[in-house]
Structure formats: structure tokens, C-alpha cells
Write a structure and sequence with these properties.
Elements: H1 2-11, H2 13-17, H3 27-31, H4 35-42, H5 51-67, H6 73-103, E1 117-120, E2 135-138, E3 143-147, H7 148-154, H8 160-171, E4 185-189, E5 191-195, E6 208-214, E7 229-230, E8 232-236, E9 253-263, E10 275-280, E11 286-287, E12 294-297, E13 300-301, E14 304-305, E15 307-311, E16 315-319, E17 321-323, H9 338-341, E18 344-347, H10 353-359
Antiparallel strand pairs: 1-2, 2-5, 3-4, 4-9, 5-6, 6-7, 8-9, 8-16, 9-10, 10-15, 11-12, 12-18, 13-14, 17-18
Helix pairs in contact: 5-6
Length: about 350
Amino acid sequence: MEECLKTFHSHKDVLVELQVREDFNVPKIHSLKHYVSSIHALGSADGYNTEYPECLHIDYAKEGYRASNKRDYVEQMALWLQRQEAMHYKSAYLAWRKSRADHDLPGASLQIPGSSFYLKGGSRPNTPMPVNTRYKVAKNPSRRQISVALIESDYNTPEFIPTLQHFLASNLDRRPAIPPRPCDRFDVYNHLYIDTGPSVAMGHTRTVHKIRTSPKVGARGRKVQVPAKFDTVFVQGGDHPRMATVVVNSACARVAQVRVVFKLPDHLGTYPYPLAYVECFTALQRRDPVSGLYVITRSTCNHSRNVSVISVDRIIRPCHLQARCGKEISRDWTAASAIEKANSFYVNSYIDLDMFLSLE
């Protein structure tokens, strides 16, 4: 591609000499210089991969033709597709109604037979609005009994102890006799799974989202270094009651980056859910005038990042953020470091249809 572009630029003057064009100030021609770097950074260009049209050709052409009597097949194929879509929407609606009925059962829980994970359900004690919480973590923690010093260094949680103390004072009926101390040890999970139930738009019977909170793993032997992964999520605001359905409401949902998911040690008290140390972003209030996407920045408190410890049942679903950049993109940005180095972000509501319907 680069060689073809060089050949074009070396011979384009002939078009000016023949008075075909006066100049080449064309945005599409200028964008050609960015194609190679974009493909290296983001993968194949949209519209140049035949995987999607080939798959749709099977669904919309081959299957429809086979269902016809091979005569006047165009009209029959269109009718067949219309009926397939009607059945799809009906199935999605029935799956949604069934999930709502399951939610209304007292003490309902979600089980996955044969899985090495477990899902917890049921309402939180002493809450005015009972809501079925759907999440799962591994039966065995990813890292056992690690020190506070390792949590603060590996997961970048410098305010871990004071933030946990504030959470315990606000959420436990009885304060622990011994407050959290730097000598305490915690069980940590590198992955959290949130089940958002069936998609009303797509008709999936179940959608389970994976949230990663894994620290950097250094190179060892033939294995290359693996960068840290701390995903962003939508969190139910602390001042709002828990909702009976897992949806994103811009009025009461906030975006946060999950740094570490951990289990509260027994000597600090009993809490029914794992806890998460998160870094908060600003509220969903301002939209970009061109794209219509929400624009957010990192929330700060006393000139440092605003952090909090929350229960994992406050997490609604993952959130995809896109770093905002000016006319030039900094060369030191990578897929792993952009979220740490960018000043503001777009909330991508086009990541899936359910997210689009929730935020638009």
C-alpha cells in the first residue's frame, strides 16, 4: 500500500499538466497516508473484510432460496426473511419476559451447571428495594493472601486503606474492632463476570460480560510482557436505589475504572458481596455536538483521582471509552496506556445495540 501511494504521488503531476485537475487538496487523498498506521494500530479497515458480507449472504440469500420452490423466488425470499425477523423479535420478547419472571421469584439465584464459577443471587439484607444481583467470580481467588503493599503497587491503588475504612464505616452495621491496617492480607480476583440477562434487541438468552482487573505480568523466558488491564464499567450511583432491571440510566449511572476486586477478610467484618476499588469519572451530562456521544473526564478530589470502594452488585455492565485526541495523536499512546494518559473520553454508545438504546 505504501509503495502504491508513493507511485501515485510521483506521477500525479501529469494530471495537472493535462488539466484534469488544478490541485490535489482532496480529503480522501490526504487520508490515504494514515491507512497503514491505522491498520497496524486497529486492524483491518471497515468494509474491506469479507467475513460479514459472506455470513449475511448465507442468511439472506442461500437459506431464503432453499426455502422457496425455485420459481419467482425473489418474492418468496423476501417473505421468508420477513417471517424470520418476526420470529426473532417474538423470541427476544419471550426471553425478556421469562427473565423478568425469574427475577420476581423470592431468593432467586442463577446457576450454571458444570461451570467452575458460581453466580450469586438474591436481595441484599436490610435494603428497601430487593433486587436480584447477577455476578460471578472464580471459586478460588486469582491471588491469595496478598499484602496491602502489593495491592497498592501492582493495582495502582495508593488510597486503598483509607478508602476501605470509609466504606466499612458507611456500610457495616457494626464497625470492626480492628480497622484495616497495612499488615492485612486480602484475596484478590483478576476477573469479574456480570450477567445482564437476555438482550431485548438481539434476543440472546444470556449475556455475560467479562471485566478484567489484572496487573502487569513481566516477561519471563519466551513469554512476552503482558500489560495491565483495568476495565471501565457503569456503576449504580450510591445515592440512588438499586434498580430492578440491569439497564444503564444516564441520570443515576456513573462511569468508573475498576482497579481491584477483593474479598473482605473475616476479621474486618462480614459482607455478602466482593468489593471493588474504583476510580470515578465525571457524570454523564455533556455530549459532543458532532458525534452526540457523552464526554467525560476523570473525577478529582483534592487534586488527585476520586476513588471509592463499592460492592460489586453496584456494577451494571462494562463501559467502552474512547480517548479524545486533538489534531495529532501522541506517539506514546498505546492500547494499554491511552486510558491513563488521555485527559477526556467519549462514552461509546455504539459498542452494541443495547448500549445504544440505553444512552440514546
